[in-house]
Amino acid sequence: MNFKTIEVKRENGTQDRKFKLGVMREYFRIPNNVAVIATINGNIPENNIVQVLKKVAKMHPLIGVRVVIDSSQDAWFTEECDAPLPLKVTLRKSNRQWINVLEDEQEIPFDFEKGPLIRFILLKSDEISDLIVICQHSICDGLSLVNIIHDIMFLLSNPEIKVKRIDPVLPVSTNFPAAPLQVKLKLLKNKLIMGRINRKWDKQQVLFDDEDYHNIHKAYTQKYKHRIIVEELSRSQTSDLVEWCHKNHVTVNSALSVAFLAGRRSIRGESHDNNHTIQIAVNIRDRFKKPVKQVFGLLASGIKFKFEYLPEKRFSDNVSLFHQEVLHELNGNKTLEPLLGYYISPTLIDGINFATYGKWVSDEFSRYEKLSGFIQNKANTAVAISNQIIGNMPGLMISNLGNVKTQKEYGSLKLDQLHFVTSSSPFLDLVISVVTVNGKLTLTLNYMEGNNSDKSGIELEKIMRKSIEHLTEAVKQR
Q1: InterPro entries from the entry (predicted)?
Q2: pLDDT for the residue 299
Q3: Average model confidence (pLDDT) across the chain
Q4: Nearest-angstrom CA–CA distance, 443 and 231
Q5: Strand pairing of 75-78 and 66-69?
Q6: How many angstroms separate the first and last alpha carbons of the chain?
Q7: How many CB atoms lie within 10 A of CB 107?
Q8: Mind listing the pLDDT tens digit for each residue in 54-89?
């Protein structure tokens, strides 16, 4: 595909500022990206979007950062970054062209040392265009990317507007309300346990760098390719689903989650439906001391619980049971506890990540001896934790950005549709991303396709169709 690459020089005019990665280090130096694809009606002049991206970078500092490691091995986002924002432009040829483009983009590693950790791709035509924004997960979540889309469209329609910097709000304990005594005691216990683990790791510690990262990324993308299965509900289908959920006092997210559990069971059968762990992404913007909205950053947590679809019960009953579990998990500070009690050593986080994603580095790579020797050491703390994490991966992971409120029109432009895409993993089963805009709900099912011509994609496409079928049949019954 013939892309034209444009270098967008940032004009933020700020001094060098640094932000410690903290909990965001979990995504440092691993192939984990999030993306939003905006389908826009109207003509977007190329020069206009170049100018707008400069303004957006000025508004949101994390868009332009790179990462530096200090002498204590702490990682920092720094605004001292000379690399331009990458913008690729090519001719839009079809409605689903963005899928192949984004699948290919996932193979290109972000350069943490040079930055930035975001890329823009414009599939352009005179009548309709697709704007793809892909970002390394350490600096943002899905809602942040939706906010960026809004900013871009607003500025395209208001080129005279001068923008102001919006300082990042980080998911650190000082930004959250005080925890109750019971939670504090639990966190103290976790701190003592984690302290012992950290001290054990310090005696075995292995440090990793960018060459190690490029080794694991290349080996990983040679072994697996990110694939995206897309389903789009019409306005009437979306409206009927929302009405059914209101009537049954459940959320759309609960209904969708149960639909995929039902669809998986229908396709695979009971004997292969044995991973009942559910993980749901949760927006925590309203849980800060001062709730935030338009801030760009990684402002999400999650809940995790067990749930088994019961075929002897009605679909609606399964959804009600699922919804009750969600409400129970959302009660209190459960979504904040992992952030309030973040006691793990930064280098141990790196070790866990490299133990997880370094498995496919072969002897043709420069760091094969280092990485293979590290991973084969089962007594190493990082390797043991990595194996435990892999064994506890959820069977269903769902991220729903909800119903995104937008302007009907942005001057001569109109936001017609959004798609939200998250990373997957060979260790995950169903990874679902959802977003609704202009009354239309879109879903993506994300998975890693092995290079051994496995048939997982065919099966997952069947699960996607069957899941929507379960949902549609239930909604029809009202």
Answers
A1: Alcohol_O-acetyltransferase, CAT-like_dom_sf
A2: 95
A3: 94
A4: 5
A5: antiparallel
A6: 47
A7: 15
A8: 999 999 999 999 999 999 999 999 998 888 899 999
- Shortest CA distance to 230 belongs to which of 390, 94, 403? 94
3-state SS, residue 161: coil
Question: What is the dihedral sign for C-alpha 149, 155, 156, 157?
Answer: positive
Q: Which residues are CB-neighbours of 269 under 8 A, at least 6 positions away?
A: none
pLDDT of residue 273: 83
* 227 pLDDT tier (thresholds 50, 70, 90): very high
The whole-angstrom separation of Cα 438 and Cα 420 is: 15
Question: Which two tokens mark 408?
Answer: 């009907």
Residue 6 pLDDT > 80: no
pLDDT for 247 equals: 96
- Residue 476 pLDDT: 87
Domains of the chain (ranges; CATH) run 4-157 (3.30.559.10)
Alpha helices in 60-136 (DSSP H): 97-105
Q: Give the number of other CB atoms < 10 A from CB of residue 284.
A: 21
Percent of the chain residues past pLDDT 70, beyond the cut: 98
The per-residue DSSP string of 155-207 comes to: HHH-TT------------GGGSPPPPHHHHHHHHHHHHHHHHHHHHHHHH---
**Within 13 Å and on the Cβ side, how many CA atoms surround 125?**
12
How would you classify the pairing of strands 440-450 and 430-437? antiparallel
Q: Are strands 224-232 and 118-124 parallel, antiparallel or unpaired?
A: unpaired
For the cut 70, the answer to whether the pLDDT of residue 90 exceeds it is yes
Q: Report residue 375 as tokens.
A: 């991973």
Mean pLDDT to the nearest integer, 328-332? 90
* 352/374 Cα distance (integer angstroms): 11
In this structure, what token pair is assigned to residue 229? 């299965």
Q: What average pLDDT does this structure show over 40-45?
A: 95
As a whole number of angstroms, the distance between CA 180 and CA 205 comes to 35
What is the residue whose two structure tokens read 């990682």?
Answer: 75
Structure tokens at 21: 């990665």
**Residues facing 44 on adjacent strands:** none
